[in-house]
Amino acid sequence: MAPTREKAMKVLFRADASNEQGGGHVMRSLVVANEFAKRGHECFFVSIKGSFEMIPYQGSLSTQHLLHKIEIDKTNFDDCICLKSLLPSKVIPDVALVDSYLLQDNYELELSKFCRNVAALDDVPNRTHNVDILIDPTFKRTGAEYQNLLLKKAHVLAGVDYAPLREEFAGLRTSSLAKRMQTDSKVRPKNIVVSLGLSDSENVTSVIINALSKVKTDFIATIVIGKNSPYEKTIRTLSESVKSPVQMLIAHENMAELFFESDLSVGGGGSTSWERCCLGLPTLQITFAPNQEDVTTNLASVGAVFHLGAAGNLRPELVAYEIERHLADSKLLLQMSQASFNLCDGLGAERIVDEVEKRCVA
């Protein structure tokens, strides 16, 4: 239910995207912003220049009038005075939500001087925070892990129940599992999706395509890359050399439908993990950063994914072997579907906004 005018909030978001840091921070924060806007709260989303161009998802059309996107120069990315000057006059944010590894507790403290509450979205309990609300949607994360990292009393929302996903994932969830359970065990699934993030700065996608060229099993592959990928030409050329059908999609928006139609994924260990889990999509998962190691290991420990290893250590022969092994074992794929499906229901953004409204509505 939308709040009354007296209870509608002003919500400030601060997150960035680039080829170096990827687009996950902006993507998930936009999902949360969209949920706030759906409820009638006015959102101001501040990112360094070029961030929004990378992101295929920009929020629901129905909420655009309440979701204001503001660009800040890269040289001022950590300047709160500059940030405040970009906001409309007389706007006092009821809450500011920061989603960045580069903005530290001193930045959160500066935000608190002109914002009524400050929240942070984080993944790893390895730094201090000066916030009122701390959100970490990592699988198996607990609030106790932040006990000695909070510089003041804060409410902690921990665990994958708070993973913010676009609403279309929850919408396809039930039919997705039903589709996978109805698969005839004698029919080998053959739709593969390869999606390694919006940047893939190491061009691991090319390694996976080389692996696909070695797979003897019949398949149809879809390769998804970001809008600004410098490797587009290379990836397209490699894709054309694979004997099985391969299509390439750039900055594809409807990832929920694509995951729904796929039988197997090769994907990264970032926030997209929860999108795949929500739809029960079996995944061969690759880690691109140290903070993804624990997530991927924990998912593998419950049978939700198979850990292919770190991006820099992949061998096409090993990847091809695992693709063939998984495609040949429908029982294994179904077990992975059920294990991943049980972890994430896609309602994390709603839970985050519920908790913030309890504590911050004027």
What's the average pLDDT? 93
Total discrete domains: 2
User: With helices defined by DSSP (H or I, 4 residues minimum), what is the helix count?
Assistant: 13
The gross shape turns out to be globular
Low-confidence stretches are: 1-5
Report on the architecture of this protein.
The chain has helices spanning 24-38, 51-54, 80-86, 105-111, 167-181, 204-212, 232-240, 255-261, 272-278, 291-301, 316-327, 330-341, 348-360; strands spanning 10-15, 42-48, 67-72, 95-99, 118-121, 133-136, 155-158, 191-195, 220-225, 246-250, 264-268, 283-287, 305-310. With 362 residues, the chain is α/β, with parallel strands linked by helices. It folds into two domains: 5-165 and 346-360, Rossmann fold (3-Layer(aba) Sandwich); 167-341, Glycogen Phosphorylase B (Rossmann fold, 3-Layer(aba) Sandwich). Helix 6 packs parallel to helix 7 (232-240). The longest helix has 15 residues, at 24-38. The two termini are 16 Å apart.
Please give the structural blueprint.
Layout lengths: L9 E6 L8 H15 L3 E7 L2 H4 L12 E6 L7 H7 L8 E5 L5 H7 L6 E4 L11 E4 L18 E4 L8 H15 L9 E5 L8 H9 L7 E6 L6 H9 L5 E5 L4 H7 L2 E5 L3 H7 L4 E5 L3 H11 L3 E6 L5 H12 L2 H12 L6 H13 L2
Parallel strand pairs: 1-2, 1-4, 2-3, 4-5, 5-6, 6-7, 8-9, 8-11, 9-10, 11-12, 12-13
Helix pairs in contact: 1-13, 5-8, 5-12, 6-7, 6-11
